[in-house]
Amino acid sequence: MKRSTRLKKYVELFNRNIRHFLAPGVEIRTTIYPVEAEGAVFEFVFNRDNDSSESLDIIRPTISAVLSEIPQGMIEGDLDGVKFGGTNLYLELDRILVIKGEDDQEDWSGNAIIEDVQRIISTSRGGKTA
Amino acid sequence: MSENKVPIDKISKLADEIRLINDFSENHNFDNSFLTTPAIPSELRENRDTPLIVMITSMFLVLVCTALILFYNPVLSNAMKTFIFLIGLFLTITATITAHLKFKENLITSIVLLGLITLLSISAGMFTPKEALDKAWQLAS
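YS: structure for the whole thing
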């Protein structure tokens, strides 16, 4: 997914929905990692520095290329053959990685974003699914 | 942090289809102090889209202004017609701004702006519908 309008719309709706769960004074800095192939990666960094900036990174060929270049503790090794489906969430310290594997309309709809936020809240409380 | 990582070779022993990671979620010591409240608020389900609502309302009101100028032409004084026209222009600007906020696409913003201005211009007698169509074709070609 490299359509910046759709990627930014996801961030806008994601922030609008998760805002209800943020502790006072917490803001989210967002980095969007678009890819030539299907899907995209979003990095949401929680902070108390009043930083709610949003940036669009360079377009990389695949999600695996993104994950091999950004700091993440989710998976290591050769990522070339790994494919991502649906919505994968990785919560770590002060940040959340949302890895969208597909470009299907239903994965990017308003309801899907609400579901993503609910899964994040559930996972942050100890829920773990695979 | 590296001890938390799962080597891909290790994962591949666990599942045949390890090369597809689907709807996975994991919490590696996420700092929960960033989040609050146990309940899911009702606003989450509403997901109100303010720019869209304002855009549609403004566009509808521009149509009302257009209708007022067109259908009450003999009744309204020139000052009243000018005033309604100015309200229409203000609403056109509002609709254009909200369309841009909503869609973030220059093409859509331009269509909304030109469309509403054309409507107002026709209602005010600046163009006939035929002239407006001719100009639109000229712009498009």
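YS: worth flagging: Chain A has a mean pLDDT of 89.
IM: good catch. Also The first strand of chain A starts at residue 27 and ends at 34.
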